[in-house]
């Protein structure tokens, strides 16, 4: 996974000098949760980073970039609160289709896989000591709570305004369970939850 991420990053760097490549800065807010966990509640987070758009034709392009994304979810019941706040570096690899609505507005549809590396984050239980536990590194000889790598599908729609500004609505659904070890629901059944998030962001094209 590390080699794949590094290969993608070097590939984007190699495209810097191509005239078909446009770069943009993006910032947005998201709401994320876990699938198959009926009692979990979504938490707001943020995403920011640099996007890349490589034009193939007037209507088709390849979109990627490097994004920092803060995700999270929580449980809350009878005074007990359990909060998870992972932070990822994400690399989307998407195809995009564009069409002109007016001379200055383009409508964009995009979809493709994303790769993610967990950079940090904590789990905090608000019932006993309230101490924070790191999500991606083990403590006191224990395994880490979560796997550092994630993979999933990213999809969305957006608008390009005057070839300078971006507005994006984006969804993500993970393919793999991010937890180390088995996850058991309230009925005692083994489940395989996945990351899920929705975001709105704005951007500026260089």
Helix tally equals 1
- SS-based structural class? mainly beta
CATH class identity = Mainly Beta
- Span from first to last CA? 30 Å
Count of DSSP E strands? 13
**Helix and strand sequence:** HEEEEEEEEEEEEE
Gross morphology is elongated
Indicate the radius of gyration in whole angstroms: 19 Å
Low-confidence stretches: none
CATH architecture assignment:
Beta Barrel
Number of domains: 1
Stated plainly, the CATH topology is called Porin
- Compute the average pLDDT: 88
Largest sheet: 11 strands, antiparallel
How would you describe the overall organization of this protein?
With 206 residues, this protein is mostly beta strands. The protein has a single domain (2-205), classed as Porin, CATH 2.40.160.20. Helices cover 6% and strands 63% of the residues. The chain has 1 helix and 13 strands; from the N terminus they run αβββββββββββββ. The chain has one helix at residues 2-14, and strands at 21-34, 41-55, 60-70, 73-77, 80-92, 94-102, 105-125, 132-134, 149-161, 165-174, 183-184, 190-191, 195-205. Strands 1, 2, 3, 4, 5, 6, 7, 8, 9, 10 and 13 form an 11-stranded antiparallel beta sheet that branches. The longest helix has 13 residues, at 2-14. The two termini are 30 Å apart. The model has no long low-confidence stretch (mean pLDDT 88). This is PorT family protein. It comes from Phocaeicola intestinalis. Residues 20-169 form the Outer membrane protein beta-barrel domain.
């Amino acid at each position: 996974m590390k080699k794949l991420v590094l290969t993608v990053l070097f590939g984007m760097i190699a495209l810097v000098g191509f005239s078909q490549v446009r770069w943009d800065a993006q910032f947005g807010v998201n709401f994320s949760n876990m699938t198959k966990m009926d009692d979990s509640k979504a938490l707001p987070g943020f995403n920011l980073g640099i996007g890349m758009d490589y034009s193939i034709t007037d209507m088709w392009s390849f979109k990627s970039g490097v994004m920092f994304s803060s995700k999270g979810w929580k449980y809350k019941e009878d005074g007990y609160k359990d909060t998870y706040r992972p932070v990822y570096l994400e690399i989307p690899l998407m195809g995009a289709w564009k069409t002109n609505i007016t001379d200055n507005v383009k409508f964009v549809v995009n979809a493709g896989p994303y790769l993610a590396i967990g950079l940090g984050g904590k789990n905090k239980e608000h019932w006993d000591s309230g101490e924070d536990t790191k999500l991606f590194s083990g403590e006191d000889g224990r395994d880490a709570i979560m796997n550092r790598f994630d993979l999933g599908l990213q999809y969305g729609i957006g608008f390009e305004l005057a070839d300078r500004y971006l507005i994006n609505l984006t969804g993500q659904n993970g393919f793999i369970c991010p937890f180390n070890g088995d996850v058991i629901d309230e009925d005692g059944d083994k489940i395989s939850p996945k990351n899920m998030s929705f975001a709105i962001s704005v951007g500026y094209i260089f």
